[in-house]
Task: inverse folding
C-alpha cells in the first residue's frame, strides 16, 4: 500500500468513526480528532546555493515560500489520566523557493510533505476541564520534490521523492466543553528528509476538536402509546390514628459522694469514681434530655474563696469525664461550683469549725457532686 493510499484509508476510517459514535460507545478510552493550522518549513538557502555552485551556477537572489495551510487527522487511546497513545495522518501542504542564477536562468523548487505518525502523549490535568500535554514520537513522511529550470539552468531529475522515518515532538493544551467534546491547541516539530539529501524541520501550529467515545449518552424518551389503563379498584379507607403526644422526660437528679469520686481536698477523678461515672453515662446515653447540669459542693471547712474554686474544679472534672471518654455531647452539659452554700447537714449536728477527723466525717454528705438532667433548657 502506498503512503497516499494509507493516508486516505486512515482519513476515511477516522471520519467514519466520527460519524458513528454509537459504534464505539463502550470503548471509553478511545478518542479521535482533527486539527487545522499553519506549517512552516526551514529552507536551507546556503545548501541550495552551494549545490548550484557545484553545478556551475552562481546564485543571484533567492525568494522563499516557507509557509502553508496544514491539517492532521488522528485517533488515540487514553491509557489513564496521565498517558495516551496517538496515531494519525498529517499533510503540511507545499513549500518552495526560486533562485536566479548566473549564467542567466532560474531554478524553481517545490516540496509537498505528508505522512503518518505514532506518539506517546503525557497529560497533566490542571483543572477538571483544562489540561496540558506533551508528546514525543516518530513520523513516516513522504517528501515529493519538483524542480524546474529556466534559461541556462537544466534539471536532470525534475520529480524526485523520498520516504523516511524521523522523530517528532510537541506540546499543547486542551479544554473539555463536555465529557465527550474538547478543543485543543498545540505546537509540533517534525524532522523531515527531502528527496535530494536535505534534512530540516517543519513546525506545525494548529487548533482542532477532539471527540471522546463512551461519554454520557442521552436516555431515550419513552414512546407514548394509546393504551388506557383500567380504573383502579376501590380501596378501603384506612384511618391512621395520630401518633401519641411526646412525653417530656422527667428531670433526674443524681448526687455522687465527692469522697467516692476524689481524694480529700483533690479534684482528680480516682479509678473507683470513674466506675460510678461510667454507669451514669450509660444511663444518660439511653435517655432523652436537653441539658445536663453538674454542680460541685464542698463542706464549710476552709475559706469561701478556696471552697468555691475547689467545687468548680470538681464539677469541671466530672463534666470532662462525661464528655470524654463517656461520650455525652459537650453542647448539652454545663458545670458550676456552689462552694458550701447548700449544705445537706445541719450545724447543730456537726458542731465546730476546726478540721478535726470527727468534723470531717460528719460533714461528708456536704461534699458531693450533683448531676441534674432536664428535658428543657
Result:
Amino acid at each position: 500500500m502506498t503512503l497516499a493510499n494509507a493516508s486516505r484509508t486512515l482519513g476515511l476510517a477516522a471520519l467514519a468513526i466520527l460519524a458513528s459514535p454509537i459504534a464505539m460507545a463502550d470503548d471509553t478510552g478511545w478518542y479521535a480528532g482533527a486539527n487545522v493550522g499553519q506549517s512552516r518549513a526551514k529552507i536551507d538557502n546556503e545548501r541550495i546555493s552551494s549545490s548550484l555552485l557545484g553545478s556551475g551556477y552562481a546564485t543571484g537572489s533567492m525568494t522563499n515560500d516557507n509557509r502553508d495551510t496544514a491539517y492532521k487527522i488522528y485517533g488515540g487511546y487514553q491509557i489513564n489520566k496521565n498517558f495516551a497513545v496517538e496515531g494519525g495522518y498529517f499533510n503540511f501542504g507545499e513549500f518552495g523557493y526560486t533562485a536566479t542564477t548566473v549564467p542567466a536562468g532560474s531554478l524553481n523548487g517545490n516540496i509537498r510533505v505528508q505522512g503518518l505518525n505514532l506518539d506517546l502523549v503525557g497529560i497533566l490535568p490542571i483543572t477538571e476541564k483544562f489540561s496540558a500535554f506533551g508528546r514525543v514520537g516518530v513520523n513516516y513522511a513522504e517528501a515529493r520534490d519538483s524542480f524546474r529550470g529556466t534559461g541556462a539552468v537544466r534539471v536532470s531529475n525534475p520529480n524526485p521523492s523520498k520516504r523516511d522515518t524521523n522523530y517528532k515532538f510537541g506540546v499543547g493544551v486542551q479544554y473539555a466543553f463536555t465529557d465527550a467534546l474538547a478543543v485543543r491547541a498545540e505546537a509540533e516539530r517534525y524532522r523531515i528528509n527531502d528527496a535530494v539529501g536535505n534534512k530540516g524541520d517543519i513546525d506545525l501550529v494548529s487548533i482542532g476538536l477532539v471527540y471522546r467515545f463512551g461519554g454520557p449518552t442521552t436516555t431515550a424518551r419513552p414512546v407514548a402509546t394509546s393504551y388506557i389503563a383500567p380504573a383502579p379498584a376501590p380501596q378501603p379507607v384506612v384511618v391512621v390514628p395520630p401518633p401519641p403526644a411526646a412525653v417530656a422526660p422527667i428531670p433526674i437528679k443524681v448526687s455522687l459522694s465527692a469522697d467516692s469520686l476524689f481524694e480529700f481536698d483533690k479534684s482528680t477523678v480516682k479509678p473507683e469514681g470513674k466506675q460510678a461515672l461510667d454507669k451514669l453515662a450509660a444511663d444518660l446515653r439511653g435517655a432523652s434530655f436537653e441539658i445536663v447540669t453538674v454542680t460541685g459542693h464542698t463542706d464549710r471547712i476552709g475559706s469561701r474563696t478556696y471552697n468555691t474554686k475547689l467545687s468548680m474544679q470538681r464539677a469541671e472534672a466530672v463534666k470532662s469525664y462525661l464528655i470524654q471518654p463517656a461520650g455525652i455531647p459537650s453542647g448539652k452539659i454545663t458545670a458550676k461550683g456552689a462552694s458550701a452554700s447548700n449544705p445537706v447537714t445541719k450545724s447543730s449536728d456537726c458542731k465546730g469549725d476546726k478540721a478535726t477527723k470527727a468534723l470531717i466525717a460528719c460533714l461528708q454528705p456536704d461534699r458531693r457532686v450533683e448531676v441534674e438532667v432536664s428535658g428543657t433548657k
Residues 3-212 form a domain with the Porin fold (CATH 2.40.160.20). Residues 115 and 294 are 85 Å apart (CA to CA).
